[in-house]
Amino acid sequence: MKIAFHGAARAVTGSKHLITLNNETQILLDCGLFQGMGDITEGLNESFGFDPAKVTYMILSHAHIDHCGLLPKLVSEGFNGPIYCTPATRDLARILLLDSAKIQMQDAEYANRKIKRVEDQEMPLYTDKDVNKTLSLFKTVSYDQDFEIDPNITLRFTDAGHIVGSAAVHLKITEDGKVTHITFSGDVGRYGDLLLKSPQTFPQADYIIMESTYGDSLHVDLEPIENMLLQIIKNTCEIKKGKVIIPAFSVGRTQELLYALNGLELKNQLPDVRYYVDSPLSFEATQVLKDHPEVYNNGVKEVFKVDHDIFDFRGLKFIESVEESKALNSDDRPCVIISSSGMAEGGRVRHHIRNSITDRKNTILMVGYATANSLAGRLIAGQKRVWLFGQEYDVQAEVRSIKSMSAHGDYEDLLQFLSVQDPSKVKQLFLVHGEYEVQQKFAQRIINNGFKNVNIPEYHQEFQL
């Protein structure tokens, strides 16, 4: 048996890990889109590094695009096997993949407007037809169920607490009379998350593929999230009469913000201003979370006893049309605008930032992970001039950050996730989904906790198990 790492190798995107058995059965763990890798991004997404038609089974840990975003391309290039995931992941992947296809098709159409020769035109990575074919291959497996994929492979999902439907993947593989247990963490969430259950414990593994996004960080804020939001909104909207612009991922982060704001209303503390969610995708993602209450933690279940809709409160409006979105920029009244994307690299939020960034009365609030090269990352770093839509702008607005709002666990969460394992029984541990410097630091923490063979795979590197 061997495993090759074709994405999220010394990087935080493009998750793809391929297990090949001695009988040539191939199991692909995740099939993510590369994002934010600069000039090399397009090339990375063009080639898998393996033959999709030879993949036997596909297992999806969760629905984030950097984990599922190349599934339609995998299918269009020959994969025709089952795609196993949790029910909530299937529901979320449907809306995210259709949205991704729409973007791919629009980008190709825009690029081809000035290209007359058909043979020179760009093609989208995939289309909505590819997505629909992909969705027909999805097969759902609930948490904590031992599911026999074939006589030699058993799959079990445990809740990873990262986003709705997210799972750690546990495989029991029998080869030549020998049983091997492999765990893939997917992305690990927080212990004590606002909305979701904490990551579940899991059985002893022989090999572990472990994410390491925040392997050198602690998410420490001195105040609860509700208090920080209240202080920022009161100072910006009530005192300075400005706008709070919040770049937020449509899945997970937006719902956490709505839950926290709803909590302020339940305490009669919510400032009396207008609240907008300017992201059609966020509306659909919020509905998926409402449809899967099994993922909520006990604290949320207690809130349900007094509030039937934990994501709704006075003053909230979901913006759908482009015309409504544009109208927000010409409305000078104090308000809070939550809009994607979370790193401010695309989407409607860039227009809201451009409209607000040169005015001291406004605040731009970061609430999640941002790569250093992204607009959100540059603002967090204190950059005083930024480029938006081909023009340079002075950063006059106040820039704030709530570091504890992350769907990824910090190094204490990751170590707690691993603490249920006997390190002496883990033959190899592979670190994926992290920047290399971060992974090196986290590898040392893991070794200090008793794990012996810790590897940080390179892109396309293969290991014999």
UniProtKB/TrEMBL annotation:
<dbReference type="Pfam" id="PF00753">
    <property type="entry name" value="Lactamase_B"/>
</dbReference>
<dbReference type="GO" id="GO:0016787">
    <property type="term" value="F:hydrolase activity"/>
</dbReference>
<feature type="domain" description="Metallo-beta-lactamase">
    <location>
        <begin position="13"/>
        <end position="249"/>
    </location>
</feature>
<feature type="domain" description="Beta-Casp">
    <location>
        <begin position="254"/>
        <end position="379"/>
    </location>
</feature>
<keyword id="KW-0378">Hydrolase</keyword>
<dbReference type="InterPro" id="IPR022712">
    <property type="entry name" value="Beta_Casp"/>
</dbReference>
<protein>
    <submittedName>
        <fullName>MBL fold metallo-hydrolase</fullName>
        <ecNumber>3.-.-.-</ecNumber>
    </submittedName>
</protein>
<dbReference type="InterPro" id="IPR011108">
    <property type="entry name" value="RMMBL"/>
</dbReference>
<dbReference type="InterPro" id="IPR001279">
    <property type="entry name" value="Metallo-B-lactamas"/>
</dbReference>
<dbReference type="InterPro" id="IPR036866">
    <property type="entry name" value="RibonucZ/Hydroxyglut_hydro"/>
</dbReference>
<dbReference type="Pfam" id="PF10996">
    <property type="entry name" value="Beta-Casp"/>
</dbReference>
<dbReference type="InterPro" id="IPR050698">
    <property type="entry name" value="MBL"/>
</dbReference>
<dbReference type="Pfam" id="PF07521">
    <property type="entry name" value="RMMBL"/>
</dbReference>
